[in-house]
Amino acid sequence: MAEFEEMSACETTLEMLKKAKEDEQETAFDRVQQQKGCAFGEAGSCCRICNMGPCRINPKKPDESRGVCGANMDTIVARNFARMVAGGSSAHSDHGRAVAETLIMAAKGEAVDYQIKDRIKLLEVAADLDVEIGDREINDIALEVGERCMAMFGQQEGELAFAQRAPEKRKEIWRNLGVFPRGIDREVVELMHRTHMGVDQDYENILVGAARTALSDGWGGSMIGTELQDIMFETPVPIEAKIDLGVLEEDQVNIVVHGHEPILSEMIVLAANLPEMQEKAERVGAKGINLAGICCTANEILTRHGIPVAGNVLQQEMALLTGAVEAMIVDVQCIYQGIGQIANCIHTDIITTSPKAKMPYAKHVEFHEDRALEIAKDIVSSAIDNFKNRGRVAIPDKTEALIAGFNHEYINYMLGGKFRASYRPLNDAVIDGRIRGVVGVVGCNNPRVKHDDIHVRVTRELIANGCLVVMTGCAAQSVAKAGLMLPEVAREICPQGLWEVCEAVGIPPVLHCGSCVDNSRILIACTAMVHEGGLGDDICELPVAGCAPEWMSEKAISIGEYFVASGVYTVFGVSWPTLGSKNVTEYLFERYNDLFKNTWDFEADPEKMVGKILSHIDSKREALGISAKRERVLYDMAMRRELEI
Ligand code: NFS
Ligand code: SF4
Known about the structure:
6-stranded parallel sheet, Substrate Binding Domain Of Dnak, Chain:A, Domain 2
């Protein structure tokens, strides 16, 4: 028992781990015990990018050996880190590209199941891209917006349009360093080239290059994904929903969507709600169709439709182990090959849908935007047919409520109202100390650390210390399961200043801002805080920070890198991939400060991580001259009378 409890802070996961043992099923929690890791890999000092290698440099004696080509520890470590950035950027950006393609098809009338649902957002994005609005048809504008976004991938020269949204001072920094991103594909390709055998051998130069590529993700690929998804599927507004494995229903057909692109999951939502599908489900003896999500695609349909979330990335195998899932529909990214293994032993169908991502033990039903709803209906229909094949079902009896769907647009509206939308109240609350700072807690789960535990501890501690927390990805799901995304939490945990702000506005102290591409929303919100005034002229001056306490993905490294290059102090947990090279680590943790006016940091211990974040925030407050916390004065009748005299 004790050993189970050390694996996860999530009760339903522990319950399913016990079941996995009984059923003799293997999960990531077992495999992580078998994979002992390798000291070279962990230090970032193993190079296998050419066939003279693999070459490994002993982290304990970094100066004593070199790769066959002569590459030293610094070069090898910097290259490996940069290649993680390239991998992460490519994943976010290829997702963004798919959304742009779909918008173009929708605007041309070639993908009739998709529409322009958020016209206001379309017009805002059009204005930012210098697309003429006039009295043009909405589809014409959408087509040009889609084409402009598409062109950002192949753009060879000049500055990326969305990156123009950054504060002026930040753009000057990028220009002076030569890292203002050009086209997204160009930056990814160039970084892959520079880190090829025998090219860039100056670790500093490699790490500056990595920043440029990451910026093309945050202010490019990811931002295209978020903005165009809002245009087609609506910008989320706060919505109440449920989370955790208990959202699966014993007497219904359970369909779980897992992956990243709402292009697919939005259609599954539509198909599952069709009366003909509901009737079909009843005909096979089910009470209906229950749709739930895993990982980021879950966040997409959670924030737009209130669809329940079954769990985060480490719960994908747990969801299958309930025996209650008729189909798990996947597209791209973060899909464990282990789910195929489990599904092979039970009735669940794994349905792959992207030509980019097939897997053993899965059915492949290729998704095409021009026949989106028809294909979604076929998939839902096959899930219903599978209901009769169910075996023993064991669904944990636990769900938690949450509010999700916050973003720049809503912050603007909730603080200022429809007619005078503004960040003023937020900035004022930060300036007068009711909000100490704003912290992004983002990223994945990783079975190398106790599942969910660090997210929850870090977040709880941050709000208890007066910070407003904004979250995305699987981190958001961890904290929601722990019940921290409810408004009443503010008064229970937060100091008076923060709970008063939360209660006045009607928000929880922890704001769910969506999926991982939606980290671009946090860049926009930081920029809006700068523009509102009173907190400096650049993002690096804000009392804000970012962290990814349980990260695992290359995408997380790309996100961290674009946050740092945008001026946000960012701390990662678990382990750090450049520790083999003192120079590379110092460059990222200290000397990036000379370049980007903030740095990376690493801290595996949750309490120390919070300590580092708070002292960073306090130092920024000090620099802004707002460190003295003003006492709140309550006006009583006597004071009012005095005023009137
Ligand atoms: Ni983000 Fe989303 Fe989760 Fe990590 Fe994977 S789902 S894109 S990478 S694991 S947070
Ligand atoms: Fe070894 Fe150099 Fe080839 Fe890397 S590039 S594998 S260090 S020879």
